[in-house]
């Protein structure tokens, strides 16, 4: 068993931002505890100034355990990254422990709050993960968060390439990702990886009246990972995650439902719209796949003008299965909001065969940035509770989880709160369609599947234009990505699920 103390965002300074008594309280708790080592995930200082680094160097020496320290965005202000190396240590590095390794990476951008694991650092991280691939436990530590966090207000300050980093860590079977940055303690499980966000150890800036805290990480020999959020008040919240075994599943029983999921057809008369690809996809859907329902996750047209809506309506009227279409940000440009209602109608809840499809409108006028809003979040929570005895599928345009090969700028500005609403409500499946690339992961108990572009040339998918085929069996979801031109496919995700129809 390995025990790690995870602290973050100390913001050491002579100014009022720093709460020295909270720091000493937590450090004394750590020193008395049975910890193998300590990880500090950044914002050691408040402004990256020399006098702050001098004091931070003294304060960090109070910790009487092996210590790994990662730079945060506040530390690299005022060219503070030079002082970090002088007073604290290397910006990137490796710490080995019994059966495991911590690989820490500098995710900061000088003088910006946003983060990035850029080209050279990304390749360095990939190389280290390959070098230590035989380690039973692989921990990656950085300052910035990988997935949206609740209770942070407007979702920003993420890793620009969060989708690529998330995909890299999952492919290399990383056990744990630790980070800080947003001053909110939170724990999620994504597939077999635990994402551990620490709150702030000793900064006055806490969210929604919270208090200072740190996280206790316990890694068991059988692969279980426990994370306890411990506040200075003594309150504790503990979460435990067990590894998924086995990872290969066999369907039990007959298929219950088949869904075709598509997005970003962007019907238009521009050269980027691939009319023949869409025609072929519609023919494949009707003649070969024969789904129970077709979901379109938005950007059905390239611009909200009547000529494009007329063309889009002609295409999608040919689909024989029942359809549910939610608008994307392109769909409601110009007169698009009125035209969407005229041609496709107000998205309504669909119930079939014990399944309930809950449409969510996230698009806004004239901007790719989406929002569900506090009223919308309460509506989702209410519907998930109301349809708890059904298999609930939530459908919206904007991606909630960052997508590989896409610059993440927080396209859904309240993604953290929406993600919490969906996972706490235990939605059985979430379908999104923004970003031009297909991606699928399971967060807590909820699979989240993003569709790539079905017929728009300006996409980000090496597999080409595609749509997703989702088959649901008792206790299992299987997701394939289907190449829109040739109909060839690849497995995108397969998960055991709990809820209705579990054998």
UniProtKB/TrEMBL annotation:
PANTHER family: CYCLIC NUCLEOTIDE PHOSPHODIESTERASE CBUA0032-RELATED, PHOSPHOHYDROLASE
Lineage, opening ranks: Archaea, Methanobacteriati, Methanobacteriota, Thermococci, Thermococcales
Claim: Iron is one of the keywords in the record: yes
Protein name: Phosphohydrolase
CDD domains: MPP_1
Record-annotated Calcineurin-like phosphoesterase domain positions: 2-185, 275-434
Signal peptide: none
Swiss-Prot/TrEMBL keywords: Hydrolase, Iron, Metal-binding
GO MF annotation: an example: metal ion binding
Family: Belongs to the cyclic nucleotide phosphodiesterase class-III family.
